[in-house]
## 1
Amino acid sequence: MIGPLGFAVKSLRRRGFHSYLAFLGLALTVATTTFLLLLGQDLATRLGIDSSMRSTFGISWLIFAYLVLALGLIGIVGLLSTSYLVSSMISQRMSDIGVIKAAGALPRRLLSYVTFEALLVIVSSCLVGALSALLVYASWSWPSISLFKQVGPIANAGATILIVVPMISFLLAYVVASFRVRRIVGSSSVDAISKQLANLDLRSLGRPLRIGRFGSAFNMATRNVSRDRGFNKTLLSVGVCICLSMVVLSGALVSADTSTSYVVRAMPPHVLIVANSNIYNQYVSFATSFSRIAPLPPIDYGNESYIISPQNASAFRAIPGVQTVDTRLITMSSITGYIKAHFASNQDTGENINTQIIPEADTGSTDALIVGINATSAIGDWYTSDGFLQSSDAQYTMIAGDSLVGNIVQTPFNLSQVSAFGYRYDVKSALVDPLNAGRVLYAPVQTLQKSLGLTGFNVLLLKVNNDPIVLSSVSQLASSFGFTVGSQDPILKSNLAFLNGIWSHIFLIPILSLSLTCGILLSYLATNFSRRFNDYVVLKVLGANVWYRLRLLLWESWGVLAISMLIAIPVAWAVSIFFLIPDPIVSIANLELSTIVSASALSGVSVASAAILSRRIGLTTVKDLKP
């Protein structure tokens, strides 16, 4: 008597092309999912996104959060695809199982035979997929392969992914296969043998959608689809994959545009910097510390030669073309953070529990850049949590840079204080600012002048209309006072180039994710066609030529993708715009570009799947038909 292994080998050989489709679909899913997750952890390690990235905490968090979300969605797409492909593979065997059961095979033996056949395909697919992913990743990252570095809370992230993803794929595939096989073996032989008819919605017979201008191939395709009870399941699976992949792609575009806007809002273009040469060089170093590491020599920020008097500042306001003069007093100082004493609160309701008082806590000390600023003439339009300084704010109020939040400055901000120059400042909110890589505090300039015993400023930012005549006038006036003038545009350009460089690496994830989706959908469509393979061969025998068969397959495949895209792409847009990040910046041109690229790639998948199966049908004769 033949054993389970012999039965599996003979059955797989007999099914030939269809067995290869199932194997390649599963192997491709495991390989691409594993590789993309390995690539994601490698990028996080190379760019230092989770720990040592030079940008501000807010921008680093946005990039890291997107990367985690994208990899999570890729993992979900891989698992859903694995489940669908295994379920389809077992469903194709239902008629064979019914015949074997009707011939007198014992249910237990039949269960072991069929399960072992599915297990052989699943194990080989997972192993080949994992090895393929490792080889591709090693080729891509050679010679600096990072499999044993920590990313976030995960130690040895690469090795963990290489083991966990194929293992989860195997377990999920095995559970789905076991459930489907047990359900089929437990059904009656008549139900199993009539599976082909059970897949047809007979109520739709005679009522196909007829549109004459598309020809009989379109009519045949719509009839096949309308009679297929598994169509809704296929449509749902394809739609979910497209939607999640589009969220990954459009989410990257929205996140990149939003992070860029954070930098531009904090350092707007067409701004001139006026200061003493030493202060000017120091300020440029602070402004570019977002994108490059440069030593900051200690200087006396309050030196009398560095101070710009209010009268001199007013002289710049009188120049035609100068729109705003932002007067600032900057200094470096050691600061200490505190959490004020407060009543304990209920974590669920937020109500105070008056019987318990939590004492004041010291959150640590560090050096930070402190900027005294006039809130009414500030040029920046920072992204803040609760607004910027206002003239109505208390005298000792500060806005904290995002890189100080979570250590020196704690949330909620109404309980957070910062000690500097012997005074306690209440923290109003936090902002995203490239200045000193986010390690900055903004306070009212009058308060800082009082603390330092000064009456002027040491930096002026001038918003101008970008007229060369204005630049010449400002330069002449600054030279007469002994100050240096420079544009903020090169600083902004440097910071944006650094940020764009990071996103150029991150964009590998959505691009390859789209490739993953295309490969998975190719497997979906090939598997779906495989269920009606005999019908297509009969059409060939009855006289359908190559062009007719190709049009029929193309209408069926493109119809499924078109319906899925019409639903999935708008949903993905909505998720990326409204739910992914707060206050996003959306470029309609980028979203349109992502839609065109995705639609083109997926349409290419429909053409490829139709061409592959049409060629296979052309090589098949009636003698090759399989039950």
## 2
Amino acid sequence: MADDRVRLRTTFDAAADLYQQARPDYPEPLYDALVHGAGLRPGDELLEIGCATGKATLPLVRRGFHLTCLEIGSALAARARHNLADYRNVTIIEEPFETWQPDSDHHFELVFAATAWHWIDPTARYQQAWRALRPGGHLAFWTADHVFPAGGDPFFVDIQKVYDEIGEGLPSGATRPRPGQLPDQRAEIERSGLFTDVRVQHFDWEISYTAQQYLWLLDTFSGHIAMPIAKRDHLYSEITRRLAQRCDGRLHRGWGAVLHLARRT
């Protein structure tokens, strides 16, 4: 698993040109909850882990915060600099969080990761975040995941058969969580012994995609980027064919995010 994590987390750089437009925007109420829960004020200094092209960076920069962003992909970092070029209150650094060392007298109000925390070495991520925060500062992370509303689009059950046929099926025991039912990492945070006052909040939304838009989205997922070309071509052909049979040619995908927020001890 550790080898897969290290290998797959570098695949996203190949999708730098698609990432900003294809990946979903996080809902504004999530940012509202983050800012309120962490007691942030304009001008506060924030550290973002794995900013990619700036999906979560831009909304927080616009709110007046000063961001230092770490990104391991050179193409993603270049795209982030382009997307954030109009703002002076953001710095992009190309370095892994695990090895990055802040100045000894420089600490942040918030360390956060948007759909990136699970790629960080689990043996070091809480300790590194604790060191980067000022006393009483906050750690936050969330991930955009697929959720399956009751009565939702049956497309995903149907297309799973194709994933199974090409040997890319779901792992044993995988579930299809409903909105509000994504698992959280409260216990893991508490076990670290480095953070307290752990709060968890669920956010759910839905996006409609054309076939091309959905393929662009899949092209930003590590498993699809790393998939053998023949398998990916067959899968994409089936997605396109099946959506072409629909009157509107679209699918509806449910998204969920679990915001974790915890205070540095």
## 3
Amino acid sequence: MAEASGRFSPGIIDYDSVSVRYQRGRALSESTAKTWSAVVAPFVRGSTQPRILDLGAGTGRFADLLATSLDAAVIGVEPSTGMLAVAARYTKPRNVAYVAGMAERIPLGDSTCDLAWLSHVWHHIRDHQACAHDLRRVLRPAGHVLVRGTFGDCLDGFPTLFQFWPAARSICEQLPIVGETVAVFERCGFSLKDHQRIEQETAAGLGEFAQRARSRADSALMLIPDSEFDAGQAAIERAAAAESLPVPVVELIEFLVFRSAGES
């Protein structure tokens, strides 16, 4: 795990060491899976087995979801061999494949994908310009890039996280902001078509949220001091024990839609 430096920078998280526990802490809840499947579906509607690039696929949590719920051929590109090894342990749909590769040099041919999906990966990419340029290359004309993530200027959607781990907010404030992200894509031939805030039920209650947090698989929780993580974990465990009727933990996730130039 990365040293708790209090500073975020692309590449600071060692995902090879995090990979074993990542799936426990970041697995999609049934509600979250349904939410995002419905969000993505309109972008492939009418296509016969569209080809989706899952860039920064991690352990394959979204690759599997998109392949099964949308009947899409999904290629997961991931730089961490540890994350890919975890993905390989699970039985994957026949229409999912994984390949090692970097976001700045995507190991796919020109005009080979209909859609690119980036989930909580944008802030981990070292060279945003190179990534957006290569996304333009691998997408077919009028293809879409869907960016799901956390941005440094849109942090009011995580009240539970910041209530118990206030130091995590200062980490998140260091992430890229929306305006900078839009500017990068526009310079590379994309246009912003939509910016939504998607409400997702991350956990059924504080108990489930606390259980996920124990894995410390969230970048912000990895980078705060151990003492602050432990104090927050103890506090949420107490709150969960006192919760007689679980209240769902709802978060707001930023969702940016970009389209490349070409026939609409």
